[in-house]
Amino acid sequence: MNFPFYIARRYLFSKKSTNAINVISGISVVGVAVATMALVVTLSVFNGFHDMVASLFTQLDPQIKITPVKGKTVAADNPVLTKIRQLPEVDVVSEVMEDQALAVYGERQAMIKLKGVEDNYDKLTHIREVLEGDGDFELHAADMNYGILGLGVAYQLGVGYTFDHPLKIYAPRREGQLNMANLQEGFVEDELYSPGALFSIKQGKYDKHYIITSIAFTRQLFDQQGMLSSLELRLKPGSNFDKVKATMQEIAGNEFDVKDRFEQQDSTFRIMKIEKLMAYIFLTFILVIACFNIIGSISMLMIDKKNDVVTLRNLGASDKQIIRIFLFEGRMISIIGALIGIAIGLLLCWLQQEYGLVRLGKTEGAFIIDSYPVSVHPWDIVAILLTVIVTGFLSVWYPVRYFAKRLL
After folding, report:
1. Which of 17, 85, 306, 322 has the fewest CB within 10 Å, making it most exposed?
2. What would the mean pLDDT of 318-345 be, rounded to a whole number?
């Protein structure tokens, strides 16, 4: 058995001549455990919110979205896009024409994003799962074009699942000069009818701004025949997503951007990552403060065991071995505190997942979810364990070296 480790273990669990040393050692373990538990729980809650937001965006965001690097639109028969469409891993492809427009219903109006898609859009996304109302996913019938409004857009325009009169959509003309005497001539006007349904994914970015309709309608309204603003794709089940995406980006070159679901919402997820990082840094500072208890415990232990140090040296122990005894002591406190903290943190996360102990509000249904979401990621646990161990090891290194020079 490792001699310094054996002595350090005896010192940790045996009764000291001064009871305060045992108390401080216990407080050190508790302090490290509490800080570790806070890291586990806090990072898991951030993971829970991240996964929840990701699940909401995936209702309308495609697996892969291809957009032109320059300009807002590109020809639908572009050779690069045609080559990407023909990849064997591609399962569903939908052309999209999206731009801003003005929606008017009665006396109300709202600036909206009009997204024109193909009839297979329900196979590309989970649009049917977020529809509310008696209607279904329909984009057109005969010579009528339907518009599926976001819940927030419907609220702004004062309509429900259905509306009695057609919804007027205005878009500026692409060519010609604006006649100030007759502003209406500067806009293209068309109408959308209600399919009897709205969509709601509980994200203001979509619910408050988007109307989904047929791509033929948007191409005509924006005077963009044969053009598209993006190409949205879904891969076949079992495809190697990263490999296929890399292949598409290689084909696209510098002409197109190829984005997955997370890259499509890059700003949102970047902010969440920064918030999680700041929480990690803040709690690590608390951990450092907790480690000061370890410094006090080790310092008092070295003074208390001064006579033992003399005995060990007489028995042949080297100065290096004696220093390692107290280093092991501090490291054992850190590791024990870390393991206890991780265990308690995982237990609390499991209880929150199963029973929702901590709720977001007192009123049921006031939020998207009733209790704080929790998701434990294994790599977070590994990072926390390494953080606690490294912090604990560094915190005892200097005081042990300092007191060793005085005692040895």
Report:
1. 17
2. 82
pLDDT of residue 180: 47
* Contact (CB, 8 A) for 97 and 224: yes
Q: Which residue has the tokens 């028995």?
A: 315
Q: Work out the number of other CB atoms within 10 angstroms of the CB of residue 40.
A: 24
- pLDDT over threshold 60, residue 16: no
Four-residue CA torsion sign, 402, 403, 404, 408: positive
Task: Write the pLDDT tens digit of every residue in 91-103.
Answer: 999 999 999 999 9
Classify strands 74-75 and 197-199 as parallel, antiparallel or unpaired. unpaired
Dump strand ranges (E) for 106-226.
Answer: 108-117, 131-133, 140-141, 144-145, 148-150, 167-172, 187-192, 197-199, 210-214
Q: What is the C-alpha separation between 210 and 230, in angstroms, rounded?
A: 16
User: Which stretch of DSSP H or E encloses residue 360?
Assistant: none
HEC per residue, 84-95: HHCCCCEEEEEE
Q: Which of 253, 27, 218, 8 is nearest to 121 (CA)?
A: 218
